[in-house]
Amino acid sequence: MKYAIVTGGARGLGLGIVNALLEEKVVETVAVIDRELAPPPAAIAAHVNGFTADVTDEKQVNRAVEEIVAHFGAGPDVLCNNAGGGERAWFESGRQHRWDSVEIWRRYVDLNLNSVYIVSREVAPRMKSGGAICNTSSIAGLQAAPGLAAYAAAKAGVISYTRSLALQLGPAGVRVNAVAPGLIYTKVWEDLGAALGGGDANARTFFDAVVRQLVPLGREQTPADIGRTVAWLCSDKAINVTGQAIAVDGGILLGQARVGEG
Predict the structure, then answer these.
(1) Contact 29, 1 (CB under 8 A)
(2) 151 is catalytic
(3) Contacts with 168 (C-beta within 8 Å, 6 or more apart), sequence order
(4) Residues in a beta bridge with 175
(5) Confidence band of 262 (pLDDT split at 50, 70, 90)
(6) Beta pairing partners, 58
(7) Residue range 149-168, pLDDT digits in tens
(8) pTM for this structure?
(9) Cβ within 8 Å of residue 173, ≥6 positions away
(10) Are 31 and 65 in contact (CB under 8 A)?
């Protein structure tokens, strides 16, 4: 039975990845690692098992992976390092101060970059030839972001590590890629939008304004958009693709805001 491990897969973007992996039949079942588990949607509940762990904690990750392997068998076919983001207080600090505190910087890096290494180090040696890893970065990791410098640096690190890991695991037949989402209204953007827009009531309005300003295609990205890209990268359809970072951003990285219609 083919199975995937998805970190941060209980909700939001991670759940979009879980849905796509199952819908596209990349795997038959998914093991979700999340710090706060939630019941999966009824349509996929029979194919999803949850395991609690903080992905920044080596011991918790080891315990969760041991439980997963004992349940599903050795050798997961797919690993999606998706857990990441930040907390509202971190975003507000970036808005209020030119420099993040060293503590906040470290927490951003720990959650968004170190976790990818910790989980990959635990899971990758168990994977067999034909396996695939996909890491969730961000367009913030591909462009300058002074107000989110720590987050952007960590996500850039994810892309760099993706490439290094692709070379490391290539001889073993394991592919490693990354996806760089654009603007998705998940919990992270709810908190960021509230921090930048002046409160919870303005979060969605602020987000929509950013989409209108920055996305040439004129629409926000969704967990399903990202999930389908991850599913492709982890499928045999992308069997000769490794070491790549694919932006799913509606054209944001083209560097030109919408200038008109038609």
Answers:
(1) yes
(2) yes
(3) none
(4) 132
(5) very low
(6) none
(7) 999 999 999 999 999 999 99
(8) 0.92
(9) 128, 129, 130, 131
(10) no
